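re: ur question from yesterday

yeah so i grabbed the chain u mentioned. its 492 aa long if i counted rite. heres the sequnce exactly as i have it in my notes:
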Amino acid sequence: MKLTELTIAAARDGLAAGDFTGTELTEAHIGAMEAARPLNAYVTETSDKARAMAAASDARRASGDVGAMEGVPVAIKDLFCTEGVKATACSHILDGFTPPYESTVTANLWRAGAVMLGKTNMDEFAMGSSNMSSYDGPVANPWKAGGDDAALVPGGSSGGSAAAVAAHAAMGATGTDTGGSIRQPGAFCGVVGMKPTYGRCSRWGVIAFASSLDQAGPLTRTVRDGAIMLGAMAGHDPKDSTSVERAVPDFEAALTGDIRGLRVGVPKEYVVDGMPGEIDALWRQGVEWLKDAGARVIDISLPHTKYALPTYYIIAPAEASSNLARYDGVRYGLRVDGESLQDMYENTRSEGFGAEVKRRLLVGTYVLSAGYYDAYYLKAQKVRARIAQDFHDAWEAVDVVLTPTAPSAAFAQGEKMDDPIAMYLNDVFTVPASLAGLPAISVPSGLSSDGLPLGLQIIGRPFDEETMFRAAEIVERAAAFTARPQFIAGEG
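ran it thru and got these C-alpha coordinates back, copy pasting raw so excuse formatting
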Protein backbone atom coordinates (compact mmCIF):
# COMPACT_ATOMS: atom_id res chain seq x y z
CA MET A 1 0.00 0.00 0.00
CA LYS A 2 1.21 3.51 -0.87
CA LEU A 3 1.98 5.71 2.12
CA THR A 4 -0.58 8.27 0.91
CA GLU A 5 -3.30 5.60 1.19
CA LEU A 6 -2.84 5.25 4.94
CA THR A 7 -5.18 6.70 7.53
CA ILE A 8 -3.72 8.68 10.42
CA ALA A 9 -4.33 5.71 12.74
CA ALA A 10 -2.59 3.29 10.35
CA ALA A 11 0.33 5.69 9.83
CA ARG A 12 0.71 6.04 13.60
CA ASP A 13 0.96 2.26 13.91
CA GLY A 14 3.37 1.96 10.99
CA LEU A 15 5.63 4.69 12.37
CA ALA A 16 5.61 3.02 15.79
CA ALA A 17 6.54 -0.33 14.23
CA GLY A 18 9.40 1.24 12.26
CA ASP A 19 7.87 0.29 8.89
CA PHE A 20 8.72 3.78 7.60
CA THR A 21 9.90 7.12 8.98
CA GLY A 22 8.14 10.42 9.36
CA THR A 23 10.46 11.78 6.68
CA GLU A 24 9.38 9.06 4.22
CA LEU A 25 5.72 9.65 5.02
CA THR A 26 6.14 13.39 4.53
CA GLU A 27 8.04 13.02 1.24
CA ALA A 28 5.21 10.84 -0.11
CA HIS A 29 2.69 13.53 0.76
CA ILE A 30 4.83 16.35 -0.63
CA GLY A 31 4.79 14.44 -3.92
CA ALA A 32 1.02 14.01 -3.66
CA MET A 33 0.57 17.71 -2.88
CA GLU A 34 2.57 18.65 -5.98
CA ALA A 35 0.59 16.19 -8.12
CA ALA A 36 -2.66 17.71 -6.81
CA ARG A 37 -1.83 21.24 -8.01
CA PRO A 38 -4.50 21.09 -10.77
CA LEU A 39 -7.11 21.06 -7.97
CA ASN A 40 -5.81 24.39 -6.57
CA ALA A 41 -6.37 22.99 -3.06
CA TYR A 42 -3.21 24.59 -1.65
CA VAL A 43 -2.41 28.30 -1.80
CA THR A 44 0.98 27.98 -0.06
CA GLU A 45 3.17 24.87 -0.11
CA THR A 46 5.71 24.61 2.72
CA SER A 47 7.72 21.60 1.56
CA ASP A 48 11.03 22.67 3.13
CA LYS A 49 9.33 23.40 6.45
CA ALA A 50 7.60 20.01 6.25
CA ARG A 51 10.91 18.22 5.70
CA ALA A 52 12.47 20.00 8.68
CA MET A 53 9.48 19.22 10.90
CA ALA A 54 9.53 15.56 9.81
CA ALA A 55 13.25 15.26 10.57
CA ALA A 56 12.66 16.77 14.03
CA SER A 57 9.79 14.32 14.54
CA ASP A 58 12.00 11.35 13.65
CA ALA A 59 14.60 12.59 16.14
CA ARG A 60 11.98 12.86 18.88
CA ARG A 61 10.71 9.36 18.11
CA ALA A 62 14.25 7.99 18.34
CA SER A 63 14.53 9.49 21.82
CA GLY A 64 11.18 8.02 22.89
CA ASP A 65 9.26 11.30 22.82
CA VAL A 66 6.14 10.52 20.76
CA GLY A 67 3.09 12.82 20.46
CA ALA A 68 -0.44 11.88 19.42
CA MET A 69 0.14 13.13 15.83
CA GLU A 70 3.89 12.38 15.68
CA GLY A 71 5.15 12.53 12.10
CA VAL A 72 1.68 12.93 10.54
CA PRO A 73 1.62 15.41 7.61
CA VAL A 74 -1.42 17.72 7.65
CA ALA A 75 -2.74 20.74 5.77
CA ILE A 76 -3.79 24.00 7.44
CA LYS A 77 -6.66 26.19 6.25
CA ASP A 78 -5.40 29.65 5.29
CA LEU A 79 -7.53 31.17 8.07
CA PHE A 80 -5.05 29.98 10.74
CA CYS A 81 -2.13 32.25 11.57
CA THR A 82 1.13 30.35 11.15
CA GLU A 83 4.33 31.99 12.31
CA GLY A 84 6.55 32.94 9.38
CA VAL A 85 4.13 31.49 6.80
CA LYS A 86 1.68 33.86 5.15
CA ALA A 87 -1.98 33.77 6.15
CA THR A 88 -4.31 35.77 3.91
CA ALA A 89 -7.79 34.20 4.48
CA CYS A 90 -7.62 34.00 0.64
CA SER A 91 -8.41 37.71 0.46
CA HIS A 92 -6.67 40.39 -1.60
CA ILE A 93 -6.89 42.75 1.40
CA LEU A 94 -4.44 40.57 3.36
CA ASP A 95 -1.92 40.27 0.54
CA GLY A 96 1.54 39.56 1.91
CA PHE A 97 0.49 39.25 5.56
CA THR A 98 2.91 36.94 7.37
CA PRO A 99 1.93 36.45 11.01
CA PRO A 100 4.66 36.81 13.65
CA TYR A 101 2.78 34.33 15.87
CA GLU A 102 1.15 30.88 15.77
CA SER A 103 -2.53 30.14 16.32
CA THR A 104 -3.23 28.04 19.41
CA VAL A 105 -4.76 25.19 17.40
CA THR A 106 -1.77 24.86 15.07
CA ALA A 107 0.66 25.24 18.01
CA ASN A 108 -1.18 22.35 19.69
CA LEU A 109 -0.80 20.23 16.54
CA TRP A 110 2.93 20.97 16.25
CA ARG A 111 3.33 20.13 19.93
CA ALA A 112 1.62 16.79 19.23
CA GLY A 113 4.20 16.11 16.49
CA ALA A 114 2.22 16.94 13.34
CA VAL A 115 4.00 18.17 10.18
CA MET A 116 2.73 21.11 8.08
CA LEU A 117 2.49 20.50 4.34
CA GLY A 118 1.05 23.92 3.51
CA LYS A 119 -1.93 26.28 3.66
CA THR A 120 -5.18 25.38 1.92
CA ASN A 121 -7.53 27.40 -0.26
CA MET A 122 -10.84 28.64 1.14
CA ASP A 123 -13.71 31.04 0.49
CA GLU A 124 -12.54 34.60 1.22
CA PHE A 125 -12.72 35.19 4.99
CA ALA A 126 -14.60 31.86 5.19
CA MET A 127 -17.68 33.41 3.57
CA GLY A 128 -19.15 30.89 1.16
CA SER A 129 -20.39 27.36 0.53
CA SER A 130 -18.51 26.61 -2.69
CA ASN A 131 -14.90 27.87 -2.48
CA MET A 132 -15.73 30.09 -5.47
CA SER A 133 -15.12 33.36 -3.58
CA SER A 134 -11.38 32.83 -2.99
CA TYR A 135 -9.06 35.54 -4.33
CA ASP A 136 -6.72 32.64 -5.21
CA GLY A 137 -9.30 31.09 -7.53
CA PRO A 138 -11.72 28.19 -7.08
CA VAL A 139 -10.81 24.72 -5.84
CA ALA A 140 -11.83 21.76 -8.00
CA ASN A 141 -13.50 18.85 -6.23
CA PRO A 142 -11.45 15.64 -6.79
CA TRP A 143 -14.76 13.94 -7.67
CA LYS A 144 -16.49 14.13 -11.05
CA ALA A 145 -20.10 13.30 -11.87
CA GLY A 146 -20.50 10.11 -13.87
CA GLY A 147 -20.15 10.73 -17.60
CA ASP A 148 -19.41 14.44 -17.13
CA ASP A 149 -16.02 16.15 -17.02
CA ALA A 150 -17.31 19.46 -15.59
CA ALA A 151 -15.38 20.75 -12.57
CA LEU A 152 -17.43 20.55 -9.38
CA VAL A 153 -17.18 22.69 -6.25
CA PRO A 154 -15.67 21.04 -3.16
CA GLY A 155 -18.03 22.92 -0.85
CA GLY A 156 -16.98 25.73 1.41
CA SER A 157 -15.51 27.51 3.06
CA SER A 158 -12.98 24.76 3.94
CA GLY A 159 -13.01 23.47 0.35
CA GLY A 160 -9.23 23.33 -0.07
CA SER A 161 -8.82 21.32 3.13
CA ALA A 162 -11.56 18.85 2.13
CA ALA A 163 -10.19 18.47 -1.41
CA ALA A 164 -6.62 17.92 -0.16
CA VAL A 165 -7.73 15.14 2.20
CA ALA A 166 -10.00 13.52 -0.42
CA ALA A 167 -7.18 13.61 -3.01
CA HIS A 168 -4.75 11.97 -0.52
CA ALA A 169 -2.62 15.15 -0.63
CA ALA A 170 -2.81 15.39 3.20
CA MET A 171 -3.60 12.85 5.92
CA GLY A 172 -5.84 15.36 7.66
CA ALA A 173 -6.52 19.07 7.56
CA THR A 174 -7.78 21.83 9.79
CA GLY A 175 -10.97 23.62 8.85
CA THR A 176 -13.23 26.16 10.46
CA ASP A 177 -17.00 25.86 10.72
CA THR A 178 -19.20 28.94 11.16
CA GLY A 179 -22.43 27.65 9.59
CA GLY A 180 -21.31 24.33 8.12
CA SER A 181 -17.94 25.12 6.55
CA ILE A 182 -16.32 21.85 7.69
CA ARG A 183 -19.29 19.50 7.42
CA GLN A 184 -20.65 20.56 4.02
CA PRO A 185 -17.29 20.30 2.16
CA GLY A 186 -16.73 17.02 4.01
CA ALA A 187 -19.98 15.72 2.50
CA PHE A 188 -19.19 17.09 -0.99
CA CYS A 189 -15.69 15.55 -1.04
CA GLY A 190 -16.49 12.20 0.61
CA VAL A 191 -14.44 12.77 3.79
CA VAL A 192 -15.26 13.11 7.49
CA GLY A 193 -15.82 16.72 8.58
CA MET A 194 -16.23 17.45 12.28
CA LYS A 195 -17.27 20.66 14.08
CA PRO A 196 -16.57 20.53 17.84
CA THR A 197 -18.69 22.18 20.53
CA TYR A 198 -18.21 25.96 20.48
CA GLY A 199 -15.37 26.67 22.91
CA ARG A 200 -13.72 23.23 22.60
CA CYS A 201 -10.94 24.58 20.35
CA SER A 202 -9.31 27.96 20.80
CA ARG A 203 -10.11 30.69 18.29
CA TRP A 204 -6.93 32.62 19.15
CA GLY A 205 -4.90 33.21 16.00
CA VAL A 206 -7.78 32.20 13.71
CA ILE A 207 -8.76 35.11 11.44
CA ALA A 208 -12.27 36.00 12.56
CA PHE A 209 -15.48 35.86 10.52
CA ALA A 210 -18.32 35.61 13.09
CA SER A 211 -16.90 35.33 16.59
CA SER A 212 -19.89 33.70 18.31
CA LEU A 213 -20.03 30.95 15.67
CA ASP A 214 -16.48 30.24 14.37
CA GLN A 215 -15.02 26.95 15.55
CA ALA A 216 -11.97 25.02 14.35
CA GLY A 217 -12.20 21.31 13.62
CA PRO A 218 -10.60 18.46 11.65
CA LEU A 219 -11.22 17.04 8.17
CA THR A 220 -10.02 13.44 7.88
CA ARG A 221 -10.71 10.26 5.95
CA THR A 222 -12.14 8.30 8.90
CA VAL A 223 -14.04 8.96 12.11
CA ARG A 224 -11.15 7.50 14.14
CA ASP A 225 -8.73 9.92 12.48
CA GLY A 226 -11.09 12.78 13.35
CA ALA A 227 -11.08 11.70 16.99
CA ILE A 228 -7.28 11.52 17.06
CA MET A 229 -6.83 14.90 15.38
CA LEU A 230 -9.43 16.69 17.51
CA GLY A 231 -7.68 15.42 20.64
CA ALA A 232 -4.50 17.12 19.44
CA MET A 233 -6.23 20.38 18.44
CA ALA A 234 -8.49 20.95 21.46
CA GLY A 235 -7.85 22.37 24.91
CA HIS A 236 -8.50 25.40 27.07
CA ASP A 237 -6.68 28.57 26.09
CA PRO A 238 -6.54 31.57 28.46
CA LYS A 239 -5.84 33.80 25.43
CA ASP A 240 -9.37 33.10 24.13
CA SER A 241 -12.20 34.28 26.39
CA THR A 242 -14.65 31.92 24.63
CA SER A 243 -12.44 28.87 25.20
CA VAL A 244 -14.06 26.58 27.77
CA GLU A 245 -11.98 25.29 30.67
CA ARG A 246 -12.66 21.56 30.45
CA ALA A 247 -10.37 18.56 30.22
CA VAL A 248 -9.93 17.09 26.74
CA PRO A 249 -11.25 13.51 26.78
CA ASP A 250 -9.64 10.61 24.95
CA PHE A 251 -11.98 10.83 21.98
CA GLU A 252 -10.49 7.75 20.32
CA ALA A 253 -11.22 5.64 23.42
CA ALA A 254 -14.91 6.50 22.97
CA LEU A 255 -15.02 4.44 19.76
CA THR A 256 -16.27 1.27 21.44
CA GLY A 257 -18.46 0.05 18.57
CA ASP A 258 -21.35 -0.35 21.02
CA ILE A 259 -24.42 1.91 20.73
CA ARG A 260 -26.98 -0.46 22.23
CA GLY A 261 -29.67 1.62 23.91
CA LEU A 262 -28.45 4.89 22.38
CA ARG A 263 -31.38 7.21 21.71
CA VAL A 264 -31.23 8.74 18.22
CA GLY A 265 -33.49 11.67 17.36
CA VAL A 266 -34.85 12.17 13.84
CA PRO A 267 -36.24 15.71 13.44
CA LYS A 268 -39.23 16.06 11.12
CA GLU A 269 -38.26 19.66 10.27
CA TYR A 270 -35.22 18.50 8.26
CA VAL A 271 -37.46 17.33 5.43
CA VAL A 272 -37.23 20.33 3.10
CA ASP A 273 -38.99 21.17 -0.16
CA GLY A 274 -37.11 20.08 -3.24
CA MET A 275 -34.72 17.75 -1.39
CA PRO A 276 -33.64 14.95 -3.75
CA GLY A 277 -35.25 11.59 -3.03
CA GLU A 278 -31.84 9.93 -2.86
CA ILE A 279 -30.88 12.09 0.15
CA ASP A 280 -34.12 11.24 1.94
CA ALA A 281 -33.51 7.55 1.14
CA LEU A 282 -29.97 7.75 2.52
CA TRP A 283 -31.31 9.37 5.70
CA ARG A 284 -33.79 6.50 6.13
CA GLN A 285 -30.97 4.04 5.50
CA GLY A 286 -28.93 5.73 8.24
CA VAL A 287 -31.85 5.25 10.63
CA GLU A 288 -31.89 1.52 9.82
CA TRP A 289 -28.13 1.19 10.29
CA LEU A 290 -28.36 2.67 13.77
CA LYS A 291 -31.39 0.53 14.62
CA ASP A 292 -29.54 -2.59 13.49
CA ALA A 293 -26.70 -1.67 15.88
CA GLY A 294 -29.11 -1.55 18.81
CA ALA A 295 -30.02 2.14 18.93
CA ARG A 296 -33.52 3.40 19.68
CA VAL A 297 -34.79 5.81 17.05
CA ILE A 298 -37.16 8.53 18.28
CA ASP A 299 -39.04 11.05 16.16
CA ILE A 300 -38.46 14.56 17.52
CA SER A 301 -39.44 18.11 16.67
CA LEU A 302 -37.10 21.11 16.49
CA PRO A 303 -39.84 23.66 15.71
CA HIS A 304 -37.66 26.74 15.19
CA THR A 305 -35.44 25.05 12.56
CA LYS A 306 -37.21 26.90 9.74
CA TYR A 307 -35.92 30.20 11.12
CA ALA A 308 -32.29 29.05 11.41
CA LEU A 309 -31.07 30.15 7.99
CA PRO A 310 -32.45 33.74 8.09
CA THR A 311 -31.27 34.04 11.70
CA TYR A 312 -27.75 32.94 10.73
CA TYR A 313 -27.62 35.33 7.77
CA ILE A 314 -28.37 38.24 10.09
CA ILE A 315 -26.06 37.33 12.98
CA ALA A 316 -23.03 36.16 10.96
CA PRO A 317 -22.86 39.22 8.65
CA ALA A 318 -23.39 41.54 11.63
CA GLU A 319 -20.41 40.01 13.44
CA ALA A 320 -18.41 40.05 10.19
CA SER A 321 -19.02 43.76 9.71
CA SER A 322 -17.60 44.35 13.18
CA ASN A 323 -14.64 41.98 12.76
CA LEU A 324 -13.64 43.13 9.28
CA ALA A 325 -13.64 46.83 10.21
CA ARG A 326 -9.97 46.34 11.17
CA TYR A 327 -8.96 45.93 7.51
CA ASP A 328 -8.39 49.53 6.47
CA GLY A 329 -4.96 49.62 4.81
CA VAL A 330 -3.28 51.26 7.78
CA ARG A 331 -1.43 48.49 9.63
CA TYR A 332 -1.01 45.46 7.37
CA GLY A 333 -2.05 43.93 4.07
CA LEU A 334 -3.18 45.86 1.02
CA ARG A 335 -3.11 49.66 0.90
CA VAL A 336 -4.54 51.69 -1.99
CA ASP A 337 -3.70 55.34 -1.39
CA GLY A 338 -6.10 58.24 -1.91
CA GLU A 339 -6.23 61.99 -1.46
CA SER A 340 -7.44 61.67 2.14
CA LEU A 341 -7.53 59.06 4.88
CA GLN A 342 -11.16 58.31 4.07
CA ASP A 343 -10.29 57.89 0.39
CA MET A 344 -7.57 55.44 1.36
CA TYR A 345 -10.07 53.43 3.46
CA GLU A 346 -12.60 53.36 0.62
CA ASN A 347 -10.05 52.54 -2.09
CA THR A 348 -8.42 49.78 -0.04
CA ARG A 349 -11.69 48.10 0.90
CA SER A 350 -13.19 48.48 -2.59
CA GLU A 351 -10.24 46.75 -4.18
CA GLY A 352 -9.36 44.41 -1.29
CA PHE A 353 -12.71 42.75 -0.54
CA GLY A 354 -14.45 40.42 -3.01
CA ALA A 355 -18.13 40.53 -3.98
CA GLU A 356 -19.43 38.01 -1.41
CA VAL A 357 -17.56 39.68 1.46
CA LYS A 358 -18.91 43.08 0.40
CA ARG A 359 -22.44 41.66 0.23
CA ARG A 360 -22.24 40.33 3.78
CA LEU A 361 -20.59 43.47 5.13
CA LEU A 362 -23.41 45.59 3.68
CA VAL A 363 -26.06 43.32 5.20
CA GLY A 364 -24.24 43.23 8.54
CA THR A 365 -23.75 46.97 8.76
CA TYR A 366 -27.41 47.53 7.85
CA VAL A 367 -28.81 45.21 10.55
CA LEU A 368 -26.60 46.85 13.18
CA SER A 369 -27.52 50.40 12.18
CA ALA A 370 -29.68 52.75 14.25
CA GLY A 371 -33.36 52.02 13.77
CA TYR A 372 -32.77 48.48 12.48
CA TYR A 373 -30.77 46.92 15.31
CA ASP A 374 -33.87 45.98 17.34
CA ALA A 375 -35.90 44.88 14.33
CA TYR A 376 -33.25 42.56 12.90
CA TYR A 377 -30.18 41.82 14.99
CA LEU A 378 -31.84 41.73 18.42
CA LYS A 379 -34.74 39.68 17.09
CA ALA A 380 -32.30 37.24 15.44
CA GLN A 381 -30.53 36.76 18.77
CA LYS A 382 -33.85 35.95 20.43
CA VAL A 383 -34.68 33.39 17.73
CA ARG A 384 -31.19 31.91 18.12
CA ALA A 385 -31.96 31.35 21.80
CA ARG A 386 -35.18 29.53 20.80
CA ILE A 387 -33.27 27.30 18.37
CA ALA A 388 -30.79 26.41 21.13
CA GLN A 389 -33.70 25.73 23.49
CA ASP A 390 -35.24 23.32 20.95
CA PHE A 391 -32.09 21.22 21.11
CA HIS A 392 -31.90 21.56 24.91
CA ASP A 393 -35.45 20.18 25.16
CA ALA A 394 -34.64 17.37 22.72
CA TRP A 395 -31.69 16.19 24.85
CA GLU A 396 -34.19 15.07 27.50
CA ALA A 397 -35.41 12.41 25.07
CA VAL A 398 -32.40 11.64 22.84
CA ASP A 399 -28.59 11.38 22.98
CA VAL A 400 -27.74 12.34 19.38
CA VAL A 401 -29.62 13.65 16.34
CA LEU A 402 -29.33 12.18 12.82
CA THR A 403 -29.90 14.35 9.72
CA PRO A 404 -28.57 14.70 6.17
CA THR A 405 -25.50 16.97 5.91
CA ALA A 406 -26.39 18.89 2.75
CA PRO A 407 -29.49 19.16 0.54
CA SER A 408 -27.60 18.06 -2.58
CA ALA A 409 -24.40 16.48 -3.83
CA ALA A 410 -21.58 18.70 -5.14
CA PHE A 411 -22.67 21.02 -7.96
CA ALA A 412 -20.78 22.48 -10.91
CA GLN A 413 -18.48 25.47 -10.48
CA GLY A 414 -20.39 28.66 -11.21
CA GLU A 415 -23.78 26.95 -11.10
CA LYS A 416 -25.27 29.00 -8.25
CA MET A 417 -23.03 32.08 -8.39
CA ASP A 418 -25.80 34.39 -9.67
CA ASP A 419 -28.23 33.40 -6.91
CA PRO A 420 -26.92 34.09 -3.39
CA ILE A 421 -30.08 32.64 -1.81
CA ALA A 422 -29.63 29.30 -3.60
CA MET A 423 -26.01 29.28 -2.40
CA TYR A 424 -27.04 30.04 1.19
CA LEU A 425 -29.53 27.12 1.13
CA ASN A 426 -26.53 24.75 1.07
CA ASP A 427 -26.26 25.43 4.81
CA VAL A 428 -29.86 24.58 5.68
CA PHE A 429 -28.98 21.36 7.60
CA THR A 430 -25.73 22.55 9.19
CA VAL A 431 -26.63 26.03 10.48
CA PRO A 432 -28.93 24.98 13.38
CA ALA A 433 -26.13 23.10 15.21
CA SER A 434 -23.83 26.10 14.68
CA LEU A 435 -26.33 28.54 16.15
CA ALA A 436 -26.75 26.24 19.16
CA GLY A 437 -22.95 25.74 19.53
CA LEU A 438 -23.28 21.94 19.31
CA PRO A 439 -20.76 19.34 18.10
CA ALA A 440 -21.66 17.79 14.76
CA ILE A 441 -19.98 15.48 12.29
CA SER A 442 -20.55 14.58 8.64
CA VAL A 443 -19.81 10.98 7.63
CA PRO A 444 -19.59 9.90 3.96
CA SER A 445 -22.45 7.42 3.67
CA GLY A 446 -23.31 6.79 0.04
CA LEU A 447 -23.22 7.94 -3.56
CA SER A 448 -25.71 9.97 -5.57
CA SER A 449 -27.12 8.69 -8.86
CA ASP A 450 -24.24 10.61 -10.52
CA GLY A 451 -21.66 8.76 -8.40
CA LEU A 452 -20.96 11.71 -6.08
CA PRO A 453 -20.53 11.39 -2.30
CA LEU A 454 -23.38 12.12 0.11
CA GLY A 455 -23.02 12.62 3.86
CA LEU A 456 -25.07 11.97 6.97
CA GLN A 457 -24.74 14.32 9.93
CA ILE A 458 -24.77 13.39 13.60
CA ILE A 459 -25.31 16.21 16.10
CA GLY A 460 -24.32 15.68 19.74
CA ARG A 461 -24.96 17.26 23.11
CA PRO A 462 -22.66 20.12 24.17
CA PHE A 463 -19.19 18.78 25.01
CA ASP A 464 -20.30 15.19 24.37
CA GLU A 465 -18.19 14.61 21.28
CA GLU A 466 -17.49 11.08 22.54
CA THR A 467 -21.09 9.89 22.04
CA MET A 468 -21.26 11.69 18.70
CA PHE A 469 -18.04 9.99 17.52
CA ARG A 470 -19.30 6.61 18.76
CA ALA A 471 -22.53 6.89 16.75
CA ALA A 472 -20.65 8.28 13.72
CA GLU A 473 -18.33 5.28 13.63
CA ILE A 474 -21.34 2.94 13.53
CA VAL A 475 -22.69 4.82 10.49
CA GLU A 476 -19.22 4.71 8.92
CA ARG A 477 -18.94 0.93 9.41
CA ALA A 478 -22.42 0.25 8.06
CA ALA A 479 -21.97 2.55 5.06
CA ALA A 480 -18.61 0.92 4.22
CA PHE A 481 -17.82 3.89 1.99
CA THR A 482 -14.82 2.83 -0.08
CA ALA A 483 -15.45 4.80 -3.28
CA ARG A 484 -12.54 6.94 -4.46
CA PRO A 485 -12.52 10.22 -6.36
CA GLN A 486 -11.47 10.10 -10.00
CA PHE A 487 -8.55 12.35 -9.16
CA ILE A 488 -6.20 10.73 -6.66
CA ALA A 489 -2.96 12.66 -6.29
CA GLY A 490 -0.11 10.97 -8.12
CA GLU A 491 -2.44 8.89 -10.30
CA GLY A 492 -3.75 11.48 -12.69
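noticed a couple things. The CA atoms of residues 70 and 113 lie 4 Å apart. also The longest helix spans residues 373-394.
anyway ttyl
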